[in-house]
Amino acid sequence: MHRELRQRLENATGFSAFAVAATIDIRGFSAFANMQDAAAVAEFIKRVYIKLIDEYYPQASFYKPTGDGLLIIREIQPYTPEELERTVTQIVEDSLRLVTDFASLCAEDPMINFKVPDKVGTGLARGPVCGLRSEDRVLDYSGRPLNLSARLMDLARPSGVVFDASFGMGVLPPSLTQEFAKERVYLPGIAEREPIEVYYTKKYTEIPPRYKQPIGIPKWRTIERKQTLKGIKITHGAFRYELPSHPANPEHITVEVSCPKVVGGRQSKEFSTSLQFHEWKYRLHAGKPEIILKHDTLAAELEQRQVKSSWPVVITITYPEE
């Protein structure tokens, strides 16, 4: 096949079209493949591909194996409101039917007499795509719908169908729209800072929590411990401060000490937060995160600032959470 592809690339030309992309993933395939003989894995995936092509998406324009699933492209031709509605409705119906049937997809197949994965997740997206064509053979497609459908497929866990708001909820009949619920999510490379709206099969799908938080923006945790300088001096040496959660990056932990300002040798009502304290160490103790802070060093620094033993001191630890 690679030699045929090489030959066809010589005279290949580019084209564009409007299309629907469906990325289908067999859930649990990697674990299945690690436990089964390679011949059994190959037989199963072959049978699944045949079923998908013959019985679920027979009108697709292009099929591309992904190792543990299948990428399917269906061009919308002609690109009219009527054809758009027909194509979108049919591919949603086919995808829902696949989710429902997948557990028994190979039940009647005499070649499959071993336990196989029973769930599938599908992401759907549509829009303009481009591709390479050589004579009557499409060599490949690319474009945002392919990338988006793959991202949406990852949301469809443990199984189900997911598509974004631009896919065409408004063109689907009520019998299909009632199968879906709405959520706002963040997607790598697609919507990292501002969420997009997606629809998912409410019967089969639970959107993983990680997709409900901005990507690349850490969530900061702050803990405060208040005591007097006398209390700090009594503890001597090092003192443990347990953290309620694991830091995403221990190097970004900061320890800040607040104490009253000294005005004329007396305690002011105003607190100063100018002391960044660096004499501490992060560690895991019995699997739990904690800060070891050198109280003797801290006490010496506070005394240099003329802080009295009875004055309050606030130790603030800030870090990005996992």
SSE arrangement:
Layout: H1 2-9, E1 13-27, H2 29-35, H3 38-56, E2 62-65, E3 69-75, H4 81-101, E4 119-134, E5 137-142, H5 144-153, E6 160-164, H6 174-177, E7 180-187, E8 191-201, E9 219-228, H7 229-235, E10 238-242, E11 254-263, E12 266-277, E13 280-285, E14 288-294, H8 295-304, E15 312-321
Helix pairs in contact: 7-8
What does this structure look like?
This protein is α+β, with helices and mostly antiparallel strands. 27% of the residues lie in helices and 41% in strands. It has eight helices and 15 strands. It has helices at residues 2-9, 29-35, 38-56, 81-101, 144-153, 174-177, 229-235, 295-304; strands at 13-27, 62-65, 69-75, 119-134, 137-142, 160-164, 180-187, 191-201, 219-228, 238-242, 254-263, 266-277, 280-285, 288-294, 312-321. Strands 1, 2, 3, 4, 5, 6, 7 and 8 form an eight-stranded mixed β-sheet that branches. The chain has a four-stranded antiparallel β-sheet with strand order 9-15-11-12. Strand 4 and strand 5 (137-142) form a beta hairpin. Helix 7 (229-235) packs antiparallel against helix 8. The longest helix has 21 residues, at 81-101. The radius of gyration is 30 Å and the shape is elongated. 29% of the residues are buried. The model has no long low-confidence stretch (mean pLDDT 90).
